[in-house]
Design a protein that fits this description.
This protein is of the alpha+beta class. The protein is 48% helix and 17% strand. A hairpin with a 4-residue loop joins strand 1 and strand 2. The protein is elongated.
Amino acid sequence: MSADNQAVQVLSLAGAMCGVCGDEPGDRSCKDCETCRERYVAALRAAGWAPRAEVLAAAADDLHDVWRRTENAQLAGGIALAMHRIRDLAMTASQGSTAGDEGAETEAHPRSIRWRVEIYDPLAKEWAPGTPFLVRERAVERLNMAQIDSPRWAHNETPVARRLVRETTTYTIEAGESR
């Protein structure tokens, strides 16, 4: 469910109605329900409401700008961890965690996200995972540097295939297995 639809659903449950037919704006019973729905969302946005995912993503982008300008390695590491956690929260929020969703009740630990630069091994005919990175930008830097440092296989000069992969790990509680 999109954040705008979620906002309209919350307003509907709180008693908001279409001014023409009297139905909830999420029902879209008449042509004016759609207009009413758009006005509700526009009014919420004008009042400063924004989906959590958008707010968190913007905060992570701001932290990324600070991280790029930081020269202190220890401080940069802390900023990178905070940025990673905020992006993780943004991803969780964008997946629509609402009251009653199963995610909140069945997830044992917060999701973890890491990025890897994988390299294709033509002899094994499979992708080999590389070092995990907590910050996507570091993985992109590694991908770019690998293309510059070793663009071809040494034995036959064929190009090396690489790709950026996001690894998301979730820990879900198995139904009926808790004691």
